Amino acid sequence: MTMPTPRPAPARRRRAPLLLVQPDWTKRDAGDAMADDKRKLADPKKTYWTIADVAAHWGVKPTTIHTYRTRGWLPPEDETIGNAPVWKPKTITSFKRPGRGARTDLRDSST
Predict the structure, then answer these.
(1) Residues ≥6 apart with Cβ < 8 Å to 54
(2) Which residues lie closer than 8 Å to 74 by C-beta, 6 or more apart?
(3) Which of 4, 28, 48, 72 could pair with 35 in a Cys bridge, judged by C-beta atoms 3.0 to 4.6 Å apart?
(4) 28 within some domain
(5) Is 61 contained in some domain?
(6) What's the pLDDT score for residue 69?
(7) What is the C-alpha separation between 96 and 75, in angstroms, rounded?
(8) Which residue range forms the structural domain that includes residue 85?
């Protein structure tokens, strides 16, 4: 009777090497809205601002603006072009942005 040949052991995954230097947490990711100092700013002369324009004006990611809109923290859109909400620049610049320490849970519920 012939013995079956043994299978080789599965290869072990190598662990990532330990960091010997502390990472610099002040550097931002490439996808971060604030990472590029040459980012495109919202044009105040445009008729309407999109979500990307509002995000550029406030220095946040467009996903933050989507979240604000979902939670009702943005003013109502002035128009809807296709399925995209748009605001007049005056609407956004005169609106007090939530965040940065704003207590949205203490807003007057009568307004």
Answers:
(1) 42, 65, 74, 87, 92
(2) 54, 65, 68, 87, 95
(3) 28
(4) no
(5) yes
(6) 92
(7) 10
(8) 51-97
Q: What is the pLDDT of residues 50-89, one digit of tens each?
A: 999 998 888 889 999 999 999 998 999 999 989 999 999 9
The amino acid that residue 100 corresponds to is: R
Q: Which of 66, 64, 67, 74 is nearest to 32 (CA)?
A: 64
* Residue 42 belongs to some domain of the structure: no
CB atoms within 10 A of CB 91: 17
pLDDT, one tens digit per residue, over 7-50 is 877 777 777 666 565 555 555 554 554 444 455 677 777 889 99
Number of domains comprising the chain: 1
- 54 and 42 Cβ atoms separated by less than 8 Å: yes
> Is 35 within the bounds of a domain?
no
Alpha-carbon gap, residue 32 to 49, rounded angstroms: 20
